[in-house]
Amino acid sequence: MQQNGVRMGYFLSISLLLSSILYFFASNWPLMVREQKIGVSVAILVLFYLLSYGLRFIKRHSFLSNWLLVAGGLAFGISMALLGQIYNSHADSYMLFVVWLIPNLLFAIFTRYQPFYVISYVLAHLAIYFFLHPSVIHVAREDEWWFMMFWLITLGNMVLFWLTSTGKLHSKPIYYLSFLTFSVSLFGSSFTEVYGPLPELLYVLTGGILFVTFLKWVPSRGFLIVTASLLSLFVLVNFISYMVKYFSEGFFVLMLLLTVLIVWGAVAGINWLRKESAHQKSKWVVFFQEAFTVLVTTIAASIGAISIAGLLFLIMEEETVIDLLFFLSLIGFIGPVVFMRGMNATVRYTLLTMGYILGVGSVLFLEGAYWIIFLLVLLYVWKAVSAIPARLLTQLTFLVVLAAKLDEYLPSFEYVLMIIFATQLALHYVKQLPVILQNSSLVYALLSLLLLTEEGFQSGSMNVGVNLAFFAVSTYLLYRTLHQQNKARFGIVLGFWFAFLLMKYYDMLWSLLHKSLSLLLLSLVFFIVALWWDRRAKIEWPKSEPSLFMRKALVLLPVILLQFALSGYQVWSSETILANGKTVKLELVPIDPRSLLQGDYVRLGYTISTLDHEQVDSGDKIRVVLRQQANGLHSYSGFYELNGRWNRAYDPQPSDVIINGSTIGGHQVEYGIESYFVPEGTGLEVERNAKYAIVKIGEKGDAILESLSNQ
Fold first, then answer.
1. Which of 216, 277, 347, 369 is buried most, with the most CB atoms less than 10 Å from its CB?
2. By the 8 A CB rule, do 309 and 246 touch?
3. DSSP string, 250-286
4. The 3-state secondary structure of 630-661, one letter per residue
5. Residue 625, SS3?
6. At what angle do helices 221-245 and 198-212 cross, to 10 degrees?
7. Sorting pLDDT into bands at 50, 70 and 90, what band is 206?
């Protein structure tokens, strides 16, 4: 156990150091000039790889050499993001993640080290995401294009899932990630409005095949339930769509009948399956029952509850309906579940879910002590119904009502979060509870404390105290769950620990520079403690295979050199344009967001971005002629070259400058100069004062935004 504690100390130290570096670069500290920033980014990259190389001979710490190699791969991306910040390239450009992906993918191929597989997968999908959703510009795309992209992502991840499931690619994380990604992408494709009912039919057909696959051919309880849940959500979303379209008494009556038929059919089907499979000992019958119960409960309960409420609102007065729904939820739905113990499981969970939906929906609008009565009923259900799914549903419902109603009575929502954190953490330590309920209580406790760090107290010291409390509690729980060798709880806490670091990046109450220094200090503390523990405990480390640098040095070094080559090329090409490019002055209109990796930036719109009286498709390369006006500004001349053809006969003028761009649909063009990075907290000032952009354009038409000006 001491070995795991030491490993965890080193791991947290490296994680905090990387976070500190990211926060520092994102702060865009104005006291550092361009050359210093470039030097620091290269030095950090060199440091990680030198440390990884230097530790390769320490056999008992081969893991540390490997982790530092991974840290170097991550630091390369941070360095490329810094270069983008220095030269004002697109914020969160998909090309940043493509370039970041290349060496990490090569690391993954050559080493087959699981962290590189996961990093490559995440970077590839971040590149896809920012290609589809650019953070600086809006690209107009047709629904057919979106349908195609959803299916390309689905098919690509299906291939990865097949490779990992058949053992051709050994990576459990990719196995699970690819399944989740293709399931969600497939689900999203069903809502593209193209080709009539084809997207919906394809989703239902593919979902049905997956359901049968995970049911019988490749049995998997988890995948089966996820597939069933997404199919349920698909039906529910379409029900709501039809409800909006055909809102009437007849529609709701029809839907109530449909609810009864769904539940009856499910019960009859499961009973038939049990009889037919009574002689078999296969687990697939149990899997089917669980997944089918989730599917039927979600669909039937949601449709039934909404239909009852909708019908009553159409035929009765609103005040009467809310009271009626409250008592109906208790007497008509929750009561039978509690007192009729022999009820079929599918019917029980459907009635319970309907009762909770109607109860929550009504009690939130009722005044007085109704909510207390409802909470007492939930506590009784918790005690009377011992089934884990029922208790999980009851726990969630209880917390939703408690949080909503306490927020009405307490001075602020912070007190609500404190109460939930304290009660759920205490519940987590009740040993008599089943493990699943202990874990769910841990999730709610950490979630409430994490949300508390985002509330923004009036007192600065209180903000710092709450953030330190979360860090201390989550770190303590990390070591405790590690000591208990409880993988599920350790994974839960580790996820919240990293979520905290990510959320603090967007926390405006504390500067990125101060966060960076704090994280650096914590990194040093964790490293010193881990090193002291390592030496003092005199741990006997088991024999492990040599580090990646010992086994793969000849293939790792070229990949590392490639990273420096890519960084060097970015610096050289940008500096060449700054030194030799033509200077143009453009009019602009800014707004102020924050980049994922590069810090605060001003988003810019140019008059040259609009091609007057021209319609262009998105995704094409274009060369636009800028012409200097009498006031010294350059503007769109009316000439452009698209796919090798000029829009009309072009006669060059001495002041003309040609700039490269990409069409984004309609009349719009983007040039890669739409973002200007600023020191943290100065975006509003820049927005108020900046009116013009000074841009350098190279001989080949590539542009770099050099500075902003107010005159």
1. 347
2. no
3. HHHHHHHHHHHHHHHHHHHHHHHHHHHTTT---THHH
4. CCCCEEEEEEEEECCEECCCCCCCCCCEEEEE
5. strand
6. 150
7. very high
Long-range contacts (CB closer than 8 Å, 24 or more residues apart) made by 192-199: 192/143, 192/146, 192/147, 192/150, 193/143, 194/143, 194/144, 194/147, 195/144, 195/147, 199/147
Strand partners, 705: 695
Residues spanned by the domain of 66: 1-140+513-580
Same domain, 8 and 84: yes
- In order of 521, 609, 695, 696, 697, the CA distances from 671 in angstroms are 41, 8, 11, 12, 11
Give Cα separations from 3 to 489, 538, 544 (angstroms): 19, 10, 13
Question: Of 28, 36, 31, nearest to 85 (Cα)?
Answer: 28
Where does the pLDDT of residue 264 fall: very low under 50, low under 70, confident under 90, or very high at 90 and above? confident
Which backbone phi and psi does 585 adopt, to 5 degrees? Answer: -115, 125
User: At 128, is the pLDDT very low, low, confident or very high (cuts 50, 70, 90)?
Assistant: very high
Collapse the DSSP code of 566 into the 3-class scheme (helix H, G, I; strand E, B; otherwise coil) and give the result.
Answer: helix
Whether 262 maps to a domain, the answer reads: no
Question: Does pTM top 0.90 for this prediction?
Answer: no
* Cβ contacts of 434 within 8 Å, gap of 6 or more: 388, 391
Query: Nearest CA to 616 among 670, 571, 654?
Result: 670
Q: Which residue has the tokens 């739409």?
A: 674
Number of C-beta neighbours around residue 144 at 10 A: 12
Last residue of a domain, one of 580, 608, 638: 580
pLDDT of residue 274: 66
Q: What CA–CA distance (Å, rounded) separates 476 from 480?
A: 6
**What is the average pLDDT score of the chain?**
87
Residue after which a domain boundary falls, among 580, 608, 625: 580
Tokens of 669: 């063009």
Kindly give the pairing relationship between strand 692-697 and strand 582-591: antiparallel
